Amino acid sequence: MNDYNRECKIPSPAIDCDTDYKYRTIDGTCNNLKHPQWGSASTAQARFLEAHYDNGYDSPRNTGTHGAKLPSARVISNILHRSTEKTDFDPHLTVMHMSYGQYLDHDLIATPIVMGINNSDLQCCGVDEIGPECIPIDIPTDDPYYNRSCMSLTRSSPAPRVDRVPGAREQLNEVTSYIDASTVYGSDDEIAASLRTFKKGLLITESHERLPSGGKSKCFLETEADYCQKAGDKRVNVVPNLGALHLLFVREHNRIAERLAAINPSWNDETIYQESRKIVSAITQHITYNEYLPEILGQRHMEMYGLYSNTSGFHRIYDEKLDASVRNVVGAAAFRFGHSQVPNHQAVFDKYRRPTMVKPIEQTYHRPHMCAMWNGRGADGLMRWLTTAHSTASDRFFESGVRDKLFQDKDKISMDLPAVNIQRGRDHGLPGYNKWREWCNLPVAKTFSQLRDHDRHTTKLLSQLYRFTYLIDRHPDDIDLFAGAMAETTIPDSLVGPTFACILSMQFQALKRGDRFWYENPFRKTGFNQDEVVRLTAKTYDSISGVRIL
Ligand code: HEM
Ligand SMILES: [Ca+2]
């Protein structure tokens, strides 16, 4: 028996918004004054397309068009996502592009999974395997890496139904959808308070300007000097490159707070904190739309969806009818394209930008050592690596550090991230690849030979994979979105194919136009003044993030 409960949370009472409040709330409520819950933390994820579950309301999409079982996610990963040749590097981008993507993703979405008794993990290749909340992945007997038959995976928690109206299963988002640096400040008041000094607007840091200690999620200590880091998002210790970015933005908050305090001696702690927070959120939005996204989507999509910032001053674009909430398909599939950019190692560079420490990525998962070591100079060295070394290319291939050795434990049990992504899509009831093509007004394939955005080789691989038995017709409708879209040929000057470009463009448009606190908005109460906006946007075409190779 597990202690989860489908109706565990009672929907919150109607929210009374203070329309005069100048700043974002920590949990994102009251951003949209007509729909105060939109984009707020701990609400159900919204959807672009309705869920497609096998039984119509909650069981994973495991069955294809003609009633046959879909292929194992690990088999798909082996055939479509295994990189056999030497790693391809991106000629223009640094590892920072990948790392910023992960950091930004954690600002947008965190999907909780079902837990067992006393908050333990379910044993989905053990005692819990046949339970309703387990979705283990079958490993084939001829697997190129694993010599076992089962990869454990738990379903995402079902969201409580608002007013208990029946309907299909939905998933939760624990963090604010808005790009509001919730990674720095947290998505609930308790966490936010625990990160503040309540003096001069400053955030708590450990000695040598490091992240504070006290993180409660999984974390292994390698030396006596190590400690589990704490930040606005609990995933901070997952991998050192991520911890380094958290630290960068905490330091930026404190740097800004000190300067604001110096020029505004009358401001109290709260004002300095909120004003610094407002600037850090604006910087995050600015980098996202002017340096990070253009590399992913390419100029045509950036312009078509109005995603670039203005180059001079205000931009009145707020649309109160637009729900900014992060859509299920973005968290469960499209924004996971970045897993293909994850390198096989983590590194620390010295001030001459030469490597002084390089570790295989599987030796760094959940270990904050590299970040915290050398009294914080490890984090500086990680940042030098991130802004110097070439990123792994974004394509259908995944490095073995994430495809075979994800979260490898002492018994060498590990996971396959692209396979998990495919299985997660089924868990969330994401409709198949063709349904998304249709939604995007892209040509839909009725036969495998009609696949428009795949080369001949990947078309062949897809048709082999989704052929179930010799008696049943193959059908491209069954292709999982993650697999089908990752295998597309990328559009020129971008990192993704047309299907993910469409889904991501729609999402980032909603996150911009549906945010009342978007930094370019000319709103006297909540926004910046003309001078401030000019200062934030003037450097639009200068790189401040380090995502490009110089
Ligand atoms: C640096 C190494 C990274 C590791 C080890 C990692 C690992 C993971 C893991 C284990 C999950 C949860 C999978 C599941 O159970 O469904 C996940 C989710 C996710 N990852 Fe990554 N990831 C990394 C980088 C990235 C990057 C670069 C991006 C995007 C640019 C990204 C985007 C996402 C998204 C959108 C989710 C879903 C989050 C949620 O809904 O909770 N990740 N990642
Ligand atoms: Ca957020």
In a few lines, what is going on in this structure?
The chain has helices at 73-81, 95-108, 182-185, 189-194, 240-263, 269-304, 328-332, 369-372, 377-386, 400-403, 417-427, 433-439, 456-465, 481-486, 498-513, 530-537, and strands at residues 43-44, 89-94, 137-138, 150-151, 172-173, 345-349, 355-360, 390-392. It has 550 residues and is mainly alpha-helical.
Give an account of the 3D structure.
The protein is mainly alpha-helical and 550 residues long. 32% of the residues lie in helices and 5% in strands. It has 16 helices and 8 strands. The strands form 4 sheets. Strands 1-5 form a two-stranded antiparallel ribbon. Strand 6 and strand 7 form a beta hairpin. Helix 5 packs across helix 9. The N terminus is likely disordered. The site of protoporphyrin IX containing FE (HEM) has 21 residues, from helix 2 and helix 11.
